[in-house]
Amino acid sequence: MRIDIVTIFPEYFGVLDVSLLGRAREDGILDVQVHDLRAFTHDRHRTVDDKPYGGGAGMVMKPEPWGEALDAILDLDGAANASNPLDAILDLDSTVGPDAQQLTRDAPLVIFPSPAGEVFTQAMARELSTADHLVFGCGRYEGIDQRVFEYAESRASVRLVSLGDYVLNGGEVAVMAMIEAIGRLIPGVIGNPESLVEESHEDGLLEYPSYTKPAEWRGYEVPPVLMGGNHGAIATWRRDAQLERTRRVRPDLLPE
Ligand code: SAM
């Protein structure tokens, strides 16, 4: 999967070099390109924001740099699709900027993190994990000029996605969370794919509690059924524990 991220804080994404996602990048499963929005400005101060029309507090991200950044990413994509897709150049190691020459293979989905978007879920992560190319646009300040979304929609599929019902300072943390949730579902990223099956939200319930050695720790004991080797009894215990936990913590997940 190819991922392009547009941000005014590229350094936020340094963590993509570590852990499982870092290895997925090394292995070529995940190709992440981070683009500095300010590289698409043309004034001395590399301005990306201005006062809101109609007044009000805060600043709004200007449309011009966003338009150029999206063009740089989507034009390359379109060029790849217009030519023989199988011959598309997939040398994606260098940074894409206004002068970049790389091409990518598949039409992208553009995602703008926004508290006003549809809420990100495990089901959405699973759906997006099958995409070939995701483009994330990180807002800051009071957000991005509305016309950028309309322009992006004229060129690609676009989704506004919220991490939850609260307001962050910028889209970077939301994008990191989404990439981590999506990335770990891509085949090959997690060593044992079975570990993904029984997780919270995969079957609509929260996961059962987990235990490891020692069997007794500071007076707390592992439930004996988990050490008895009876797989049927273990499965029943785990299912009951899932239901009990979900009922207690997230009753909204259970059917009426
Ligand atoms: N004025 C906006 C509003 O009330 O909807 C909030 C802007 S917020 C301070 C700046 C940026 O942070 C947003 O453009 C978005 O990229 C990101 N952001 C904030 N909260 C978010 C959330 N819950 N989910 C996803 N992105 C969020």
Description:
- The chain is of the alpha/beta class and 256 residues long.
- It is built from 6 helices and 9 strands, in the order βαβββαβαβαβαββα.
- The chain has helices at residues 19-26, 63-82, 122-128, 146-155, 172-183, 231-249, and strands spanning 2-7, 31-36, 49-50, 60-61, 109-119, 133-137, 157-162, 216-217, 220-221.
- The strands form 3 sheets. Strands 2-1-6-5-7 form a 5-stranded parallel sheet.
- The two termini are 38 Å apart.
- Bound molecules: S-adenosylmethionine (SAM).
- S-adenosylmethionine (SAM) binds next to β5.
Q: What summary fits the major beta sheet? A: 5 strands, parallel
Dominant shape: elongated
Helix and strand string, N-terminal first?
Answer: EHEEEHEHEHEHEEH
| Ligand list | S-adenosylmethionine
Helix/strand/pairing category: alpha/beta
Count the E strands: 9
Report the average pLDDT across residues. 89
Low-confidence stretches: 81-105
Work out the radius of gyration: 22 Å
Portion in strands: 15-25%
Secondary structure: helix percent: 25-40%
Biggest sheet strand line-up:
2-1-6-5-7
- SS field, number of helical segments: 6
Any chance you could write out the topology, listing elements then pairs?
Blueprint (H helix, E strand, L loop, with lengths): L1 E6 L11 H8 L4 E6 L12 E2 L9 E2 L1 H20 L26 E11 L2 H7 L4 E5 L8 H10 L1 E6 L9 H12 L32 E2 L2 E2 L9 H19 L7
Parallel strand pairs: 1-2, 1-6, 5-6, 5-7
Antiparallel strand pairs: 3-4, 8-9
Bound molecules: S-adenosylmethionine.
Labels describing this entry:
256 residues, alpha/beta, five-stranded parallel beta sheet, two-stranded antiparallel sheet, 9 strands, 30% helix, 16% strand, binds S-adenosylmethionine
